[in-house]
Write a structure and sequence with these properties.
globular; seven-stranded parallel sheet; single chain; four-stranded antiparallel sheet; Arc Repressor Mutant, subunit A
Amino acid sequence: MRESSCEPEIRRRVARQRRVMNIGPSELVQMAYVAQQHYRVGKSLVEIADDIDMSRFKVARLLARARETGLVTIRVNAPGTLHADLARRLAAAYGLNRAIVANTTTDLSPAIRAELGRITANLLTEIVTESDVLGIASGRTLTAIVDQLDRLAPCDVVQLTGMAGDPNQTSSDLVRRICEISGGRPFPIYAPLVVSDPQAAEAFKRQASVQATFQRMSRVTKAVLAVGSWEPPESQLSDALSDDERAELLARGVRAEISATLLDERGQRVPALEGRTLAIDIEALRNIPEVIVVAGGAQKTEALRAALNTGVVTILATDSHMAQRLLDGAPRAR
């Protein structure tokens, strides 16, 4: 008699059930606890071992046994939501440490923010540790990250840019929300992103809380930034300026900004608004080990290309349409 296609799987399930039945209740509870702490909470073997006063080798054996008995099963779903090949090619073309490319069916910025927020929230959960100092700017895309962030290591969180745009999407609000999730210490800037003159900016910087935040910026190990586009317009900094000032800067070649540093189409700095912004400088960004930029949508193509050409970005999170456009116009040698 021919064996039906489902019989091997039935036998495997029965065998797993028998193995579980042969485990004592005490060991079963230990296995379940260790597996939950490792795979769901994200604790390391050493952290779990310290929590329950057990050697990390015993913790490793419990995890291995949990997989063998079927108490833990692992499934990989990456191909459906992430485009691994585009990510690899994009990282190589622009000299990035890493690129993460979301498969998207649309090219419109509002529609893809949630997906970029999801993949970047997952990235931060993976790479941020308690010893890190996390820097965060502002923007609608960065708000989407925090909307989908459900856990993070308890690290210090530093605001990298002053407040601009929607009051519920300012970098101060994002810092507060991240610290509520992680339990880390906030370092906010309760001041505008751009002010009328350098004297006003210096007055804000003399405030004790703002001064403490700017001092803490030198300790940032991972920064998360958006990119503003000036042509076509999609920039909180541009929106904060008068029509005349915006027109003057466009005439001088401004096409993008990262933090509050203005860039031309080649990624070269355009000296403007000097001393009037409260934000981390691009030269300070170069000293941060990991600078994560999150941007997507057709409107931001040239702005993102300019940001990548600065050489500041180490990790990029974007969508598949943007990735292909960036590759089509990538430098021949890097």
